[in-house]
Amino acid sequence: TQNLRTLYSLPKRIPLDPKSKRKPPPYLVVRGEAFFPLDKFEAFNQSRVDAGESPYMNPRNAAAGSLRQLDSSITAQRPLTLYCYDLVAWEGAKLPDKQRDRLAFLEELGFPVSPDNLYCKNIDAVAKAYDDWNDKRNQINYEVDGIVVKINDRPMADSLGFVGKDPRGAIAMKFPAQEKTTTLLDVQVSVGRTGVLAPVAILEPVEIGGVIVKNATLHNYQEIERKDIRIGDRVNVKRAGEVIPYVV
Question: Is the backbone of residue 217 left (phi > 0), alpha (psi -120 to 50) or beta?
Fold first, then answer.
């Protein structure tokens, strides 16, 4: 919680505008996601290299590592931002029944909400939104691996319940993984915090989905043997979920 409070985009009081007529409930729980904008991630990684520190492999790892810091002053130095997208719990007030109205409610309180959220009147509009986002996925300033489609009628959506941790009133539509061919220059071994040895492919830099990929996971030695991967090979590289590069 202390680490989240260091994010400049998270309001320290609600409503953010003291003159606002919108009054928040006495108790409110909001869900969102912290992330690194791509331009700030590149600059942050370069500053780590300049300081003799290891760069992060991708923005998601950098964001997770920043929020897990024991010293919140370290988190405060990192250019994280935040988008809020749901109301989890509240007391003492009746909130809007429509998803898009709840997003507007969050904005009125001062919470950052993605300006790219879109209301679709029918399934054809959803399909078009998916195609549009797939086309522009490499042109926006944050990583995205798909879109989430939610039922706008929240009481109806909530009445459908869950499958495990996943709500039946929402579905994630993932984009196809992007793949490029490059040369395997070397194989190095990283040691995890539990002592597990993980082989890492050192690649001739290649652009995949707007990101320059230099390293990729090889999973384990059995996988290397199964694929007969050797230094100097031409290999196909994918980014799983637009985040973790791996050798196909």
Answer: beta
Mean predicted confidence (pLDDT) in 14-31: 86
Percent of the chain topping pLDDT 90: 60
Whether 198 and 78 map to the same domain: the answer is: no
Do residues 27 and 97 lie in contact, with contact meaning Cβ atoms separated by under 8 Å?
no
Q: Do 75 and 150 fall into the same domain?
A: yes
Per-residue pLDDT tens over the stretch 52-89:
887 887 788 889 889 999 999 999 999 999 999 999 88
3-state SS class at 223: helix
Give the angle 136-138-144 at the CA atoms, nearest 5°: 90
Q: Is the peptide bond before 15 cis (omega within 30 degrees of 0)?
A: yes
- Could you tell me if 106 and 31 are in contact, meaning their C-beta atoms sit under 8 angstroms apart? no
- Cα 230 off chain centre by: 32
CATH number, position 116: 3.30.470.30
Please tell me what DSSP assigns to residue 117.
-
Q: Amino acid letter at 29? A: V
CA 139 to CA 136: how far, in whole Å?
5
111 close to 117: Cβ distance less than 8 angstroms: no
Per-residue pLDDT tens over the stretch 204-239: 999 887 678 888 889 888 999 999 999 999 999 987
What pTM did the predictor assign? 0.78
Domain that holds residue 183: 179-247
In the predicted structure, residue 113 carries a pLDDT above the cut 80:
yes
Say if residue 203 is in the same domain as residue 158.
no
- Tokens of residue 115, six digits: 């300006």
